[in-house]
Amino acid sequence: MQAALLNKSPVSVGDMPSLLEFTPAAAAKVAELVLEEGNPDLKLRLYVTGGGCSGFSYGFAFDDTVAADDTQTVTEGVTLVVDAMSLQYVMGARVDFEEGLEGSRFIIHNPNAQTTCGCGSSFSV
């Protein structure tokens, strides 16, 4: 049995499921906002905090630093950063940007959320 495990070919990074999807629409909007800020080193940081009507809330901020335990997802040259504590709540989620009748906003489609509030900014697991 061990020999079979040792002979198994390694999995390439491209075959592994993404920890977080950062859509091209979201990346394009972040690129636009970074350009307005005038600091090309900025990255979009997604974080989760306690609170909100459903227990946890999503937050976004620009950050020009990346900690050793941060997870980075790059789409079209734009970086989304998530800290290790927040990652457990958003693993497998899709960060998107939508424009519609209700306005423009970043949307998180989170498979870990059991319930969400009407505005989409808070959730429970």
From TrEMBL:
It comes from the Bacteria. GO terms for biological process: iron-sulfur cluster assembly. Iron-sulfur cluster binds at residues 53, 117, 119. GO terms for cellular component: cytosol. One of its GO terms (molecular function) is 4 iron, 4 sulfur cluster binding. Coiled coil: none annotated. Binds 1 iron-sulfur cluster per subunit. Residues 20-120 form the Core domain. Its cofactor is iron-sulfur cluster. Pfam families: Fe-S_biosyn. Signal peptide: none annotated. Keywords: Iron, Iron-sulfur, Metal-binding. PANTHER family: IRON-SULFUR CLUSTER ASSEMBLY 2 HOMOLOG, MITOCHONDRIAL. Required for insertion of 4Fe-4S clusters. Belongs to the HesB/IscA family. HAMAP family: Fe_S_insert_ErpA (MF_01380). Homodimer. This is Putative iron-sulfur cluster insertion protein ErpA. It comes from Rhodoferax fermentans.
